[in-house]
């Protein structure tokens, strides 16, 4: 697929101009004048900055603005493969058959300049789906249609983009709302599509099913009859099906539901070899109503009135070369002014997941279910709870005072878990690529950026720390293999990030059992970091692999700071374990490291890479450049409620330098002058470059030619989100929102899939750093074993509201001037200590009772005399005057 560069950029500009006819979103720093001409400014106007703070409303992408074609919201269960919800409500992609391909659409796109070491070609791992967004991948036929009868009229409409004058897609992951709009019809049609998604419940969030719930409102004065019909092609064993096989559709009458079971078998009855194929399994289409009609073989051809009168064909068998499509339908009579709701679902079952002999292969959901029919039975039986709790989470998440677009962008990247980036083996083990099918082994130096999983599904992360990082990947000297069985080396940034994650996983636990059980190995992993400081100055200086895929020599600010943060976290855990000897070791390292980092690696404006004293700058490094992760250690510290690990003034100076030198309102001129990077941001788009050269040195990275140099000229969203989270924590809210919005605008649906942030392949794990920006916007701190919770919002402090997730429950926190409230929506929450912002509290009341408190530095800390446990539905009210 060849794309002429000039024509492509022209099309991008036209698309951007179309997108900008609405207030949200603006694209980068691109704005329009009164004639709708695209303008690029070097600094965002004040009114544009002000608009970033506005609450706004849910982003609605429209057919009339050509915004639906690229939308692919992952809408299957987490770690169950990938099924995309399209902008018009049809499902597509269907990467559920264990093919393990690289990229959602493996392809190579011609490009005008060299990209890394790949020449003028862009592969899936280089951003092929960024410059040539994927769409309309439909290996099987699926859809829904509506038959309406009113008065003497009959209308048949497929529920797709071609059949309606307007369709809107509301991008509220994990539940999308699609509206089919035609003012000439007497009805309003709405689709709510989702898979059960319930924070803290990874099992019920990991069901291989997509639910499609249709609402039809009769807005006329006369009755309307409406029949909704759905169909699904039997493409079981999509890749391995052969002439020796035949596909079978069977009508299934479940308890309270009716549907089609789509299977495959061998014609001669010898199914053993077939059942071992990687893509073997079955599919199920159902309506959650025992009155549903079902047909195992839907007639081919255009839809007619007869199509909606499903004949009860109980079973149909066809050769694999023939098309076999099953259908279900529900008939409704809708009185004037009334609304009906019909619930449908599609489940799948492809249990034979394989990754080169890794322990525990096979899919986790196969432990509980024998086939897709069993999945459907479970979902139907528990539908009221599953749908209620999923909708409760959606409502809780978006019922916030923070801007809608911000809540969307910081959360939607957790949909990566519902793609083939992430898997869960039958053993229960979590295992992942960096991006779809690229770079195996749950890479520590990438996944340590992904803040979302540890906060939403903490049990998955705890198990990974214990089973993998402190288990099969732990070396005798405490090093952690950074790709598990797929690697023979530790990576220093991954090592430090993993110790920090261990501290986060401890905080997101209900008690100290996880910490106590793993303490000896945590110490080993921490000592490994300390031992990489060869000269004992607290600054790591051993050449080791890092996330930029090279071994760097010298003392590197971002790695030094990250190691300091990790060892400090270990020290805090040592204090909890009353391990005073190890605490002293950690304190000695962090104190020396911080002092020397601030004096030796700060150049007066930003933090740098000090070359190895022997090799100098003859090897690759960042040296005097302005590197995006230079104060990453402090950023991580804010994610786990630690004190400062780097001086505040120097840190702020470094962040301001990043915004001054690395943030580009339009990356076009920069990437044109610095070729070689992958196209993760294009001309006319805003973003933060990984490394810049403020000193104008001739060879800023030490070497002239190295394939990794291309990284330095790229915009990678995971790093950008990390910086935005840090800026938010330091009070640089304008800059944090601007950077987050730059990413949000690059992924506007008029240009590409909003749900697929791309780095090294699609749905890249590092992008889940976006959740960290929400954490710092809320000023959220939590320590489950201590029963400690704190909030310090950075915006809308007088009228703030946001969700929170703890070890055993989640809900909504709000503060209005002196009133603070925690409303628990799900689970339970045990509290001993609470901390809130308040400038001058003289009295604190818990409910109506005055209680002791401690006020200092603009915060009020409340130490309860005995623990309080909130249950779902209960609210804790605190008033300060």
State the main characteristics.
alpha+beta, globular, disordered N terminus, 881 residues, 42 strands, 20 helices, 26% helix, 10-stranded mixed beta sheet, single chain, 10-stranded antiparallel beta sheet
Task: Write a brief structural summary.
With 881 residues, the protein is of the alpha+beta class. 26% of the residues lie in helices and 25% in strands.
Question: How is this structure best described in words?
Answer:
- By secondary structure, the chain is an alpha+beta fold.
- The protein is built from 20 helices and 42 strands.
- The strands form 11 sheets. It has a 10-stranded antiparallel beta sheet with strand order 3-11-12-13-14-22-18-17-16-20, with helices on one face.
- A hairpin with a 3-residue loop joins β35 and β36.
- It is globular.
- The N terminus is likely disordered.
Q: Count the beta strands.
A: 42
Give the structural class: alpha+beta
Work out the helicity level: 25-40%
**Could you list the spans in which at least 5 consecutive residues all have pLDDT below 50?**
1-41
Rg computed from alpha carbons, rounded to a whole number of angstroms: 28 Å
Q: What is the distance, rounded to the nearest whole angstrom, between the alpha carbons of the first and last residues?
A: 66 Å
Shape annotation = globular
Largest sheet: spatial strand order = 3-11-12-13-14-22-18-17-16-20
Total of helices: 20
Residues in β-strands, percent: 25-35%
Largest sheet: 10 strands, antiparallel
Q: On the 0-100 scale, what is the average pLDDT? A: 93
